[in-house]
Design a protein that fits this description.
Elements lengths: L2 H5 L7 H17 L31 E2 L8 E2 L4 E6 L4 E2 L3 E6 L5 E6 L19 H4 L8 E5 L2 E6 L1 H4 L11 E7 L5 E4 L35 H13 L3 H14 L4 H13 L3 H14 L4 H13 L3 H18 L5 H23 L4 H11 L22 E2 L3 E6 L3 E6 L8 E6 L2 E4 L8 E4 L4 E4 H16 L4 H5 L20 H11 L1 E2 L20 E4 L7 E2 L6 E6 L2 E6 L10 E2 L8 H10 L8 H8 L2 H27 L7 H14 L11 H13 L3 H17 L3 H17 L3 H20 L9 H12 L1 H9 L4
Parallel strand pairs: 1-3, 6-9, 20-23
Antiparallel strand pairs: 2-8, 3-5, 3-7, 4-5, 5-6, 7-10, 8-9, 11-14, 12-13, 14-22, 15-19, 16-17, 18-19, 21-22
Helix pairs in contact: 5-6, 5-7, 6-7, 7-8, 7-9, 8-9, 9-10, 9-11, 10-11, 12-24, 13-15, 18-19, 18-20, 19-20, 20-21, 21-22, 22-23, 23-24, 24-25
């Protein structure tokens, strides 16, 4: 453990100090306006939870006291018996102060314990008041915490600070539990408490609950539960609605109305398997139930069983046409719309046939942000409504020294669409704080808040639908996390989720200048991150990649960028080769890759210290001397750009990699500055030659994210030279580069390619499109 963490634990705080500090913290929170407190709501993780076992008997010989807890350890097989002695604060975890029977006091953080459905919809992005949060665990509540994890987190004052933690932060211990199944509320008449003497025995304040008192002698009917469920449904509290409908179904298992209603609530929670089960039972007892049939079609679409859905929906449309009743007009219209979408999704999933123009339209519409609130104008944001696709040309196989990977089953041409994958979960920059970060003490790294929010959302998603655990848990979670089997495959293991994200996440990347429009400026600092299941099986190499990835909204498109021979592994890069070896190594460590064995990394490691020192001196000269002079030349005519010095440094960098010109990435930025320097001096022709060199290097190095920009620079330079024929030829290159990255290469002889490419350029790169129009390229 780091020394600064050890210093934080030299002396435990006394009971009196902990109670006083917690009370002071509560008072500070109550004085703060809720909008100043928003930064913490989406933060989640401080360190990593160890694996847990689920079969712990609540017997006194398995009990552990607070005093016996060891820092940074999961006390597997033990449980902590405690009682709540103060009010609660609901941030991402539920914080409160607890006391064990011996009178030891400490703070506890219960993650994922309070489900989202327990919080009113309108308040789910807000800070609950201390009064509201304390209703979850009233003072006096007795708890048994299985497998308690004693962990250091930033002090509570840091938690409510907008600046978040740093390496100089003071840390305090907290008892942490990630799994709601390991937090047991103990009834006061439980036999476990019979022989326990409490230092301070508190009586729990009675919770207010929305059920009839036992002495009312009133028995609730199935219809009572239906009405109660409908009220929750109308308020968008779908999980609570499910609970009410379920209570009614227990009384009347074949009540078609309750089954159909619960199916709709399950649909809203994206629990399609449970939806399908309910509607099939309903249709068995009432085959003509139109809404149940419609919901069956929706459930089958959600389960990606599109052909089955089409059969159900076509039959439903036929029945609705025969009836032609005004009362069924709404469901008829909805069915026809869903059938149309199901046919599209079926074509996408089976053949990889996508209407890229419509996809881009949908993306551009959904990416708009309300500048006052920072929320999406479209509620779901840029999460697109399209199907996954997986080519038959590839399969997952064991790969030597790489674990598992995706491998070509046959020869695959360049430009082939191999996969389209919808994110299992994605978090965009505006959906989480832009200033808060969390610490990962295990790897000694700082994670952005989007990674913390991503872990939280995946955990909550698995809590709602544990059947999804197996899909996520198949992904690599590191050598220290053992494989799960049996019932554990359906348990929510937050530590495993965090590790899976660590090794498999993808950051969202700026592909087009639409990200830089005024409406989307809140996204540009941290676009976000997501987990895509199948693309996670593609392994990394800094160079010599053979597939490109492109993310539109939450859809990832994987396409070959060069021919792939049968038996060869699919390779993409997790970080840009333009970055230095040190920057790439750090980025790869975040993915759990200790050492990359690509040509570029091997060359970086093999170079002599003399070569490394010379390169470092060259780059330092550029950063400290030439780059500032370049900036001055842009803002004042009194400063001349350092063309000779730049040229000399570029030549020296090239010489250091003389035998490997295709791996000379260090001069990439310098060349761009040199090209701009020539423009400043009026030497457009020389600048054009430099940009052509840059473009050719980008194509060779598979830097597709840069090549369309370089091509546009070349086109605009030809305009300056009044060579419009060449300018428009290069403008065509720009259009093909930009559109090709989305929809693949245009076929030879296609006559309408330019119209489609122009449309895509206008939508995704409006600034470049406008500039091109102004200089006569359109």
């Amino acid at each position: 453990m780091n020394e600064f963490l050890e210093n934080s634990m030299k002396k435990r705080k006394s009971r009196q100090v902990l109670i006083a500090e917690y009370e002071e913290w509560l008072n500070k929170i109550e004085r703060m306006r809720s909008e100043k407190f928003q930064h913490f709501i989406t933060t989640n993780k401080f360190g990593y939870r160890q694996n847990f076992q689920h079969s712990i008997n609540l017997e006194l010989n398995n009990r552990i006291s607070i005093e016996s807890l060891e820092i940074d350890k999961v006390h597997t097989g033990k449980f902590l018996l405690c009682q709540v002695i103060n009010r609660c604060v609901k941030m991402n975890p539920l914080f409160t102060l607890i006391e064990d029977p011996e009178g030891n006091v400490d703070r506890i953080a219960l993650y994922n314990w309070v489900e989202q459905s327990a919080i009113p919809v309108k308040d789910r992005k807000k800070v609950l008041s201390i009064h509201e949060a304390s209703k979850f665990l009233p003072i006096g509540t007795k708890l048994a915490i299985k497998n308690p994890y004693y962990q250091l987190i930033p002090s509570f004052d840091v938690i409510i600070s907008p600046d978040g933690p740093s390496l100089n932060t003071h840390f305090d211990p907290v008892i942490r539990s990630d799994n709601p199944n390991e937090v047991i509320v103990i009834d006061h008449d439980n036999e476990l408490l019979n022989n326990i003497k409490w230092f301070n025995n508190l009586k729990m304040k009675e919770k207010k609950i929305n059920v009839m008192a036992a002495d009312d002698k009133q028995i609730l009917s199935a219809d009572d539960f239906r009405q109660s469920g409908n009220k929750y449904f109308i308020s968008n509290d779908f999980a609570a609605a499910v609970d009410e409908y379920t209570s009614g179904i227990k009384l009347e298992p074949h009540n078609v109305t309750l089954l159909a209603n619960r199916a709709e609530a399950y649909l809203r929670l994206n629990q399609f398997g449970k939806t399908l089960n309910d509607v099939e039972i309903a249709l068995k007892h009432e085959p003509g139930h139109l809404k149940a049939a419609f919901r069956k079609g929706k459930a089958l679409c959600g389960l990606k069983r599109y052909q089955e859905a089409i059969i159900i929906l076509k039959d439903l449309v036929s029945r609705l046409l025969v009836g032609n009743d005004d009362s069924t007009a709404s469901i008829k219209q909805s069915t026809e719309i869903l059938l149309k979408h199901a046919n599209i999704w079926d074509s996408e999933s089976r053949y990889g046939k996508y209407d890229y123009t419509k996809i881009v339209d949908e993306f551009c519409e959904k990416i708009k942000i309300n500048q006052d609130s920072g929320d999406w104008i479209c509620g779901t944001g840029p999460r697109l409504d399209h199907a996954d696709f997986l080519s038959d040309d590839i399969e997952i196989r064991p790969v030597k020294k790489r674990g598992r990977g995706l491998v070509a089953k046959r020869d695959i041409p360049e430009g082939t669409l191999l996969m389209v994958s919808k994110a299992f979960e994605v978090v965009y920059g505006n959906e989480a704080s832009l200033s808060y970060v969390s610490m990962d003490f295990a790897s000694k790294t700082i994670n952005t808040v989007t990674h913390s929010e991503l872990a939280k959302r995946i955990a909550q998603k698995l809590l709602v639908d544990p059947d999804l655990c197996q899909e996520v848990y198949k992904l690599y979670a590191g050598p220290e996390v053992e494989n799960l089997g049996g019932d554990l495959l359906c348990s929510v293991d937050v530590r495993r989720i965090e590790k899976i994200i660590k090794y498999n996440y993808f950051e969202l990347v700026e592909h087009w200048d639409i990200w830089h429009t005024e409406e989307n400026k809140r996204l540009t600092k941290d676009l976000g991150a997501g987990l895509w299941i199948l693309p996670s099986y593609i392994n990394h190499s800094c160079v010599d990649i053979n597939v490109d990835r492109l993310v539109i909204g939450d859809m990832m498109f994987i396409r070959t960028c060069r021919p792939i021979l049968s038996g060869k592994e699919l390779i993409l890069n997790y970080c840009s080769p333009v970055n230095s070896y040190e920057v790439r190594s750090y980025a790869l460590r975040l993915h759990g890759i200790k050492s990359c064995s690509c040509r570029l990394c091997n060359l970086d490691r093999s170079e002599s210290e003399k070569v490394k020192l010379r390169r470092a001196n060259i780059l330092e000269t550029y950063e400290k001397s030439l780059e500032p002079r370049m900036q001055l030349s842009f803002i004042s005519a009194n400063y001349s750009p350092p063309i000779k010095e730049l040229t000399k440094l570029i030549d020296e960098l090239k010489e250091l990699r003389g035998k490997h010109p295709d791996l000379e990435f260090h001069s990439f930025e310098l060349k761009s500055d040199l090209a701009e320097a020539y423009v400043r001096t009026g030497n457009v022709l020389q600048s054009l030659l430099v940009f052509k060199e840059i473009y050719n290097f980008e194509k060779t190095a598979q830097l597709s994210q840069f090549s369309s920009d370089a091509a546009y620079k070349i086109a605009s330079h030809y305009v300056r030279l009044n060579q419009m024929k060449e300018a428009k030829e290069w403008w065509d290159v720009v259009l093909k580069e930009l559109a090709g990255s989305i929809r693949g290469k245009f076929n030879e002889g296609e006559t309408k390619w330019r119209k489609e490419a122009l449309y895509l350029a206008k939508k995704l790169s409006p600034k470049m499109f406008s500039d091109a129009k102004n200089i006569g390229l359109l």
